[in-house]
Amino acid sequence: MWFGSSSTIVLLFFSLSFNYFLDESINSSIKAKMQKGLQNIEFAVVKENKIIEQSKNFTLNNFKDYLNQESDFFIIKHKHDDDYIDALYITQEKESLLLLYKTNIDNKIEEFQDVLLLLVPILLLLLIMLASRMIDKILLPINKLIQVINSTSVSEFSQNIVLPQEHDELRELVVSFNNMIERLREGVERLDRFNSDVSHELKTPLTVIQGEIEITLRKLREPKVYKKSMQTIFEQSKQIESIVEQLLLLTKYSKDNIKESFELCNLDSILLACIDNYDEQLKAKNLHLEIRRLEVILLNANPILMNSIFSNLLDNAIKYTPKGKNIYIELYQSDKIVFSVKDEGIGIAKEQLNKVTDRFYRVDESRHIKGFGLGLSIVKNSVELHEGSLIFDSSLERGVHVTVFL
Questions:
Q1: Which long-range contacts (CB under 8 A, 24 or more apart) does 7-10 make?
Q2: What percent of the chain has pLDDT over 70?
Q3: Please, which residues have CB within 8 angstroms of residue 271's CB and are 6 or more apart in sequence?
């Protein structure tokens, strides 16, 4: 309705303006020709409102009506015939007036007005039809988008919008929306799996604790039984504490607050301290740790997260490397700061590499090894908070090579 109304006003304004200027142009042309004294022009000389001389065919009887007016040029329409008009031009000649009168001029403006009156409604109708199709083309995908948005919830991400055929901004909008839905779907699936894994990981030690307490309370036991039960409860509570601490480390820092915790860190010192902490574990498995390259590197970073990166990657390498094998470590700076850990452990299948940083994800081969599957999630989160990247290179029985770029 708005488009139709606006189009009507614009077309009317255009038609009236065009008609006015065309009329003025034709009248100016007629006047110019009459001033030049062309043939077939009748004349009359008027003095004191009386004709003192006139041509044979001068037939304008009401000439007095035009004498005292401001204009000197007049278009006179026929009463019963719009196809022709007359023109009168008045000029001063000494003490008298000269009236130049041309009759039966072809009235082209009237023909044009008739055509214009016919074309304007047709053009308006075509414009409205075209606008209707364009509006449908624009609004139908938007309406569909609104319907899908209204039907989308945390539990319902099944609908995608069919892509429009035209490669325009609406198609880009639909593609972006579908991509957003896919990301949300993946996020919700990860969240559901995370909740399930958290419940499972916490439920296991809690079940053990409850079982130990229940068995112990059934009857009086020997002191050594109580001691063993308390030792089990203590170990399980430490597991719960470890899970909670790691989860808190995952959620404590974000891109909004991480910069506030930055300080100047000596990365090589943090790494050497981590290696010292794992000295007993390395000796217990008779693992040879070789530092292939180590440079003094200062970086403005979060020391807790940097320690977490080093310790988790080193801990994983020790856990999954068989006795008597080697672990290789490098820390140096080129275009970026590079930290790498390479082991000769059980390795990870190619198809599982993109999942190892998911929270609580553990490959089947490592289920028998103690851990919660949070370490690599913490590493990935910590690296990304420092605007770095993490690369895994591995295959089964060929070890794992992890490279961190900062």
A1: 7/124, 7/127, 7/128, 7/131, 8/124
A2: 83
A3: 294, 310, 329, 331, 339
Same domain for 269 and 311, yes or no, is: yes
Q: Has residue 37 got a pLDDT over 70? A: no
| Coil/strand/helix, residue 91 | strand
- CA nearest to 149, candidates 187, 107, 123, 181: 181
Question: What is the maximal distance between C-alpha atoms in the chain?
Answer: 153
d(CA 241, CA 206): 12
CATH code of 230's domain: 1.10.287.130
Which amino acid is present at 194? Answer: F
As a whole number of angstroms, the distance between CA 118 and CA 115 comes to 5
Closest CA to 369 of 334, 387, 345: 345
d(CA 174, CA 159): 12
Residue where the block lists tokens 């290696």: 275
Distance CA 92, CA 83 (A): 31
Could you tell me if 8 and 90 lie in one domain? yes
Domain that holds residue 174: 169-252
Cα→Cα distances 311→320, 345, 384, Å: 14, 17, 17
The structure tokens listed for 9 are: 């006003």
Convert the pLDDT of each residue in 349-381 to its tens digit: 877 777 777 766 665 444 444 444 567 877 888
Per-residue model confidence (pLDDT) at position 366: 47
Using the 3D structure, point to which of 73, 89, 112 is the last residue of a domain: 112
Residue in 91, 99, 96, 31 with CA at minimum distance from that of residue 63:
99
SS3 sequence of 194-263: HHHHHHHHHHHHHHHHHHHHHHHHHCCCCHHHHHHHHHHHHHHHHHHHHHHHHHHHHHHCCCCCHHHHCE
Sequence length of the chain is: 406
